[in-house]
Amino acid sequence: MRTLHRAWVIAAVILVAIVGAAGFRATPGVLITPLQEEFHWSRSTISAAVSVNLLLFGLTAPFAAALMEKLGVRRVVASALVLVATGSGLTVFMTSSWQLILCWGVLVGLGTGSMALALVATITGRWFTRHRGVVTGVLTAGGATGQLIFLPLLAYLAKADGWRVAALSVAGSALAVAPLVWFFVRDRPRDVGLLPYGATEEPPVVPLAPGGAARRAIGALRTAARTRSFWFLAGGFAICGASTNGLVGTHFIPAAHDHGMAETTAAGLLALVGIFDIAGTIVAGWLSDRMDSRKLLAWYYLLRGLSLLVLPSLFSATTHPNMLIFIVFYGLDWVATVPPTVALCREVFGEAGPVVFGWVFASHQIGAAVAAVGAGLIRDSFGDYDAAWYVAGALCFVATGFSLGVRGKSRKLVPVTV
């Protein structure tokens, strides 16, 4: 029997960490209503904490990717899990809204940001040559799986036992995953005497740029920002974040509750998005190995925009077939944009691709943060979310044009990996 390549073990453990990170980050969507009922904070106040979480989730990514070059994936990810556990556990003692921002916004945001999609780009770039797109799709789908596992469970715990039990469950889960990362993950194939999976020769060693992780991350941004393709990728991904994590991920449950739907039912629908996203993202990874990622990305944004324009008419107190059709359609598209975006960053920016993707992902979370706060303000001002859905749908059409505008390989690459 052939020995299982170590790359698959690494990918499996990182998948568990990504599953957890996605569930941890998505938890505030379940807690909005319980926190509002207990502390009498406004929807926009609680959304501000979610916005900080989303913002740091993205802005941490490029620095975490560069820090992985210096300290290693194992140390960074294990430390991030401990940080998530600390932030989630401390929320049970909070009495003021600033403490929510500190715990769920800052601590959990920094922790989950260190396990964001830049980690996927780093792992697939180092450990895989064959099936890279498919593995990217599977690891990206881990985000949907985390949502699938955690949202219904946490919604049930928050309703049955209180939101504090849900928060402590997140803390315990994060601590349970940290030892797996520490004992099983290694930084590069050559650390254990292997080649990347599918490689026939040792990849060339690219000298590490001088300076610390922050300097390398900023250097990658400075060089990438000189290209039009970077701004098209970043702009499109900002709209991606606004139309997924920021809007649907944060406000779908309270929006459905506004129409009389039980929170547990709404959380179940959002979890169904995660089920279909698993299939959609894996297929997107497979397609990104076989077709032009620009066209693939453009199609995903176009279809997402159309679905969001329809959503306001689908909310009701009960689940009906049209809403289920939306869930299936939207779920297949939810994070399917990631594999082609990772592929384009690698194609355009070469060895600097993972760190550049970290900055592109940061734009994703900036868009998500703006949408999280903006949708909360729209709800407080107009009494419903309708305008938020329509604006997000229109912006997706803009992202379609951005995707088609990305061009070929940059002449200036940033040496950030070894």
From TrEMBL:
Residues 9-411 form the Major facilitator superfamily (MFS) profile domain. The keyword Membrane applies. Keywords: Membrane, Transmembrane, Transmembrane helix. It is a multi-pass membrane protein. Pfam families: MFS_1. CDD domains: MFS_YcxA_like. The keyword Membrane applies. The chain crosses the membrane at residues 7-26, 46-68, 75-93, 99-121, 133-157, 163-185, 230-253, 265-287, 299-317, 323-344, 356-375, 387-406. It is found in: Cell membrane. Coiled coil: none annotated. GO terms for molecular function: transmembrane transporter activity. GO terms for cellular component: plasma membrane. InterPro entries: MFS, MFS_dom, MFS_trans_sf, Proton-linked_MCT. This is MFS family permease. It comes from Longispora fulva.
